[in-house]
Design brief:
With 105 residues, the protein is α+β, with helices and mostly antiparallel strands. The protein is built from 3 helices and 4 strands, in the order βαββαβα.
Length: 105
């Protein structure tokens, strides 16, 4: 297993997605952010069933950066309770994983 992870989060507005992506890359907390529009989320919030169109952000980083990433994401994120889910990268291209590590330095 590598020490690389994928982080997932969602936002409601494209301008928030772009702002978060640009900031996290510039601050070297992530190597890359994929901004995926068109996601529909169904969830329970404050005892109400909700359905919202959202934008999914797929962030690639190292385990070492996850605590700082979570803290920064909470500061940047417009939601009261932002999604912050980490998925380990079990395997991947050796060169791509090295690029992630170098990019977050």
């Amino acid at each position: 297993m590598s020490n690389m992870v994928i982080c997932l989060t969602t936002v409601a507005k494209i301008r928030d997605a772009e702002r978060i992506a640009k900031t996290l890359v510039a601050e070297r907390l992530v190597a890359c952010v994929n901004v995926v529009p068109g996601v529909v989320s169904h969830y329970r919030w404050k005892n109400k069933i909700c359905r919202e169109k959202e934008i999914l952000l797929i962030l690639k980083t190292t385990m070492k950066k996850t605590a700082a990433l979570e803290k920064r994401l909470k500061n940047l994120h417009p939601y009261e309770l932002p999604e912050f889910i980490l998925l380990p990268i079990e395997k991947g291209s050796k060169d791509y994983l090295a690029w992630i590590a170098k990019s977050v330095g």
